Amino acid sequence: MSAPLACPQCTLENTYPDGDNYVCADCGYEWPIAAAADSEEDDDAVIKDANGNVLTNGDSVVLIKDLKVKGSSTTLKVGTKVKSIRLVGGDHEVDCKMDAGNFMLKACYLRKV
């Protein structure tokens, strides 16, 4: 079962499907299920950094946490600047090149510069 959708009017998550519509139990607002599916797809396409800023291809970012590289003794240090990122799909959304090599990073550990 997926997470409940937030109501577009009152932003609470006390919603349920009713026929072809979603209904908010708190405010009574109704909206079509098809429109909710479209908005979910749009949310997946937007990748945001740790502060909520939208990332795009070619942005420069900074690491906000020390990251241990799996299968290696290398650690990527906090404050390391990464130039010209590339956004990709999947769990690790950011593809980048650093002095230590090529890495796939999660956007939640990055801050846009």
CATH superfamily of the largest domain: SH3 Domains
CATH architecture classification name of the largest domain: Roll
Instruction: Give the mean pLDDT.
Output: 86
Query: Major sheet, described briefly?
Result: 3 strands, antiparallel
Indicate how many domains the architecture comprises: 2
Strand runs, count = 11
**Overall shape:** elongated
Question: Over the alpha carbons, how many angstroms does the gyration radius reach?
Answer: 19 Å
CATH names the topology of the largest domain as SH3 type barrels
Q: Helix count?
A: 1
Structure description:
The protein has 113 residues and is mainly beta. The chain folds into 2 domains: 1-45, N-terminal domain of TfIIb (Single Sheet), CATH 2.20.25.10; 61-112, SH3 Domains (SH3 type barrels, Roll). Helix content is 12%, strand content 31%. It has 1 helix and 11 strands; from the N terminus they run E-E-E-H-E-E-E-E-E-E-E-E. The chain has one helix at residues 33-45; strands at residues 15-18, 21-24, 30-32, 61-63, 67-68, 75-76, 81-82, 86-87, 94-98, 101-105, 110-112. The strands form 4 sheets. A 3-stranded antiparallel β-sheet has the order 1-2-3. A 3-stranded antiparallel β-sheet has the order 7-4-11, with no helix packed on it. A hairpin with a 6-residue loop joins strand 8 and strand 9. The chain is elongated and about 55 Å long. The two termini are 37 Å apart.
